[in-house]
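hey so i finally got around to running both of the ones u sent me last week. sorry it took forever, my laptop kept dying halfway thru and i had to restart like 3 times lol. anyway pasting them below in the order u listed, first the sequence line then the structure token line for each. didnt double check formatting much so if smth looks off just lmk and ill redo it

first one:
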Amino acid sequence: MRSAKDFFRPLAVGAPAPVREVPFRPSRMIHFFDPGNEKMAAKVPSIAPTVDVLLGNLEDAVAADRKEAARAGLVAIAKGTDFGDTQLWTRVNSLDSPWALDDLITLVTEIGDRLDVVMVPKVEGAEDIHYVDRLLAQLEARAGVRRPILVHAILETASGVANVEEIAGASPRMQGISLGPADLAASRRMKTTRVGGGHPGYLVREDPKDPDVELPRLTYQQDLWHYTIARMVDACAAHGILPYYGPFGDIKDTTACEDQFRNAFLLGCVGAWSLHPVQIDIARRVFSPAPADVAWARRVIDAMGDGTGAVMLDGKMQDDATVKQCKVVVDLADALAARDPELAEAYEAAWKEQSR
């Protein structure tokens, strides 16, 4: 058995040292684009400043006869675009495909110094991460990449969900995990053709008011993904990496999209995928703590002093546990405000109002 100390040694001679802690960078929305689509590629310079993460997609939604064009397009975009503070990610093809190896070889050797994260689809277990981990180290050494490219896994098979804890802890490169609801639904043989979101047939019904009289009874639609997201969040939190909701496929239903994103946010996710520009603002709004909530959290922290004991604020008890909750909100707000001046101004205004 390898020593635990080996976990933080490069897996190839000349590769950069693995990270000891995943850096938290705002990633409220991972905005997907097809780098082989000329119209989409032309919009990248204008979209990049509006998103936290821009992801060049090489897998699903890219036809087999366009895989090489998409790969080449991403290389050209990465070399020719100033992304500023926006992260550049890619989703490579699945490891069982004929394109994944060339994706990694080309991208790391050509633009490894520009690439922040490689998203790996259909991860089944830790062995998939180990394969990518070693290969990335070899390619980084070859290309002279000075900082390690991180890895993001997608949960979209039943095996992946069953092994999510070992996936989360498989490598120091692990940046986070996303829910992939469409492929996961197929893997589980779920009877839904929707991409994310709920289903009207997945419900609970209230008890009859009078067992002898047939009267209408209220129904309540349930969340198909609650269990999986909660388990993913726990695995990520335990290993110090970041959980994300994946895609919401009904672009026109912005209300349901916002509801689904907010459920994920409240459960602990830090962001979600955006498949269309209309979802960018939804993700920004949902995954940024509300100014009033941030102001309240700051008030609790101030009132609690050293964080021990208990105080009453507006008739509500606050103690060391609530201080920890409030610090989660405030730390996230501070990180987002450093990137988003409008958000910083809103947080400052809410705090001044709270302090009156």
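and the second one:
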Amino acid sequence: MDHSGHGMTMDLPPFTLGRGLAWSADPFFLLACLLALALYGWGVVRLVRRGDKWPVGRTVAFVAGVLSIGLMMCTKLNDYGMVMFSVHMVQHMMISMVSPILILLGAPITLALRALPPAARGRKGPRELLLMFLHSRYMRIVTHPVFTIPLFIASLYGLYFTPLFDFLMGSRVGHVAMMVHFLAVGLVFFWPIMGVDPGPHRPGYLMRMLELFAGMPFHAFFGIALMMASTPMVTTFENPPASLAVDALSDQNAAGGIAWAFSEVPSVLVLLALLFQWYASDQRQAKRQDRAADRDGDKELEAYNAYLASLHARRN
């Protein structure tokens, strides 16, 4: 017996972590993950071969981000996620909040701009097209908080509390499109905040923190709404297969707890990353000022001391 047109049987045994981590690859995400890893690896190898350095931490972060997507979409977690709200919510939270952060920490756009060769004069190659895209009006719009924060919120309330979710879960294409949407929303939300790759919208560190905390509470409210509901709220999960031995309402409450918990973990990760970037930026600025002082004999300090001396002379 098929479920939602996916060709998956409804007689899955009760969920355990071991069963959930068994191999069951979604072809689209398997190919996408392999392609992402291959392209990133090509970029790193290209830099190394010409004598440039690329931080190992960035490579580790990017690979971890891609593998986290593979873990959610190329194992039985994806099968259980079609019939269990709690497992689906783990997929959603990972792909929309954890995977994007790790991928962005890998700075793939910076790597592409450094690895892609410039085109001949008067022509536009992949590198030039990427730069045009980054500085386009479209990117200025989709990375602005006026757009990203409402989109981040609407991806929860506008999806789960409307018939759209049940429609997308009714076909394999719809399910894949929904997961791609979760990933894309996470990327455009966290991209301006993380500040690793270049982008059209790059506010100061304090404003980035405000953007981060403007969206996170809505995840918590969403989770609380699911936990406090007295009836199943999503049609897709209101009648789980009997073989799972789960109660729909209890599973929904668990999904709400997962959504609530995930609103905290990424916030801490991003906040730590921002504080580290802020500190590193201050250190670089201090070094630049020291080098400038060495070049000009610290004229700025001399001028300030002369100003203080003039004030003292006026008082006397």
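quick thing i noticed on the 2nd:
The chain is about 70% helix and 0% strand.
anyway thats it, ttyl
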